Amino acid sequence: MADSSVKKVVLAYSGGLDTSIILKWLQTTYRCEVVTFTADLGQGEELGPARDKALLLGIKPENIYIEDLREEFVRDYVFPMFRANAAYEGVYLLGTSIARPLIAKKLIEIAEKTGADAVSHGATGKGNDQVRFELTAYALKPDVVVIAPWREWDLRSREQLIAFAEQHQIPIAKNKRGEAPFSVDANLLHASSEGRVLEDPAVEVPDYVYSRTISPEDAPDKPTIVTVSFEKGDAVAIDGVKLSPATLLAKLNDLGRDNGIGRLDLVENRFVGMKSRGMYETPGGTILHAAHRAIESITLDRGAAHLKDQIMPQYAELIYNGFWFSPEREMLQALIDKSQEFVTGDVRLKLYKGGVHVIGRSSDYSLYDQDLVTFEEGAVAYDHRDAAGFIKLNALRLRTLGQRKKKLGL
After folding, report:
1. Is residue 172 domain-shared with residue 189, that is, in the same domain?
2. Residue 384, CB half-sphere, CA atoms under 13 Å: how many?
3. Residues 21 and 153 in one domain
4. Residues ≥6 apart with Cβ < 8 Å to 38
5. What is the DSSP pairing of strand 8-12 with strand 33-40?
6. Which of 12, 48, 317, 404 is 20 to 30 Å apart from 291, CA to CA?
7. Which residues are CB-contacts of 329 (< 8 A; sequence separation ≥ 6)?
């Protein structure tokens, strides 16, 4: 039952068929004014048609919001996440997950600006995105009404959606009339594909699914050598050329694409309880992840590095589950950011046929001491004989346990 108190709603609008149907459904079901918000997160699509489509569907020009969020996305969301080396279930670099809190934050900002009582999104009732959008919305505006059409309407098939579109004179592209072979979500960090032809995890991903990378087999036979420079944990330059966050990630994407880097075929555990199979392409992020770990390897103390590795799974899970604006994520972020004070320097990498290989790292803050690790004798602050006492002290409890076992005949 539609909430009759809703007079104005802000819709996360892509301009595609599904969100256009949602737009019209909101107008006809809630009898409310609709404000559209389209975010440019570097998905690689022209956003002008989204404005045209909204106008065609009766949205007032002053109620159409299109914002270029690429720099904010990378600077305030992607980079903080990469300081943590975050990877959900050890491998997924969270490309879709990290975009949702920013989109939802903007929805709330526009709702406040326009006096809207509700926000709406096009996420389905089976996925994680509904959780991510709504947890952010409630965190930033506790009294907001969230409308999730896929959980409310009775349009349960592609045929019904098409029929609704035809009934309300919503333009339908020819390639949208049939069932899509798979769905795609894209932004500057990654592209993800799932559904239909990808649902059987035993079947290899078809070549035509890939959009951000060439096949590693087709990548050049000559490696690409690149240097990524960091300041306080964030990448700031490529091959000595300073770049803005979004421009830098776009450049790494080009390098990754041309060398077949960043493909991931994954079966993951969704927050809502089911497993899903997806194919992710994160070319620049894969390079950045390897480079960041490399610069940390010489600038972070062992205790700090190991602590970061211990908290990373929890931090990644918070992002995956939609808790970007939770106090625990912010607390972990403060710890992570503190660890990056001296994570500054250069990393050289070899990119070759799908692989990212670290071949050098240097920093003015390096903790690596060649005199300490060399096999050659020299004036070093390490006496080999000290190791004997160190080993005996660490072995004390093990020897005590061993004596007990021997005494009991175990």
Report:
1. no
2. 7
3. yes
4. 13, 14, 15, 47, 50, 51, 64, 65, 66, 67
5. parallel
6. 317
7. 315, 318, 319, 323
Could you tell me if 195 and 172 lie in one domain? no
- In a domain, residue 321? The reply is no
Around Cβ 347, how many Cβ atoms within 10 Å? 27
Q: What is the pLDDT of residue 377?
A: 62
Establish if 188 belongs to a structural domain. yes
202/5: higher pLDDT = 202
Catalytic residues, by residue number, are 18, 100, 129, 183
* Of residues 243, 215, 218, the one with CA closest to residue 229: 243
Residue 309 has pLDDT above 80, yes or no: yes
CA distances (Å), origin 74, targets 5, 67, 100, 246: 37, 15, 13, 6
Rounded CA separation 78/99 (Å): 8
Q: Is residue 326 one of the residues assigned to a domain?
A: no
Both 25 and 159 in one domain: the answer is yes
Is pLDDT larger for residue 376 or for residue 397?
397
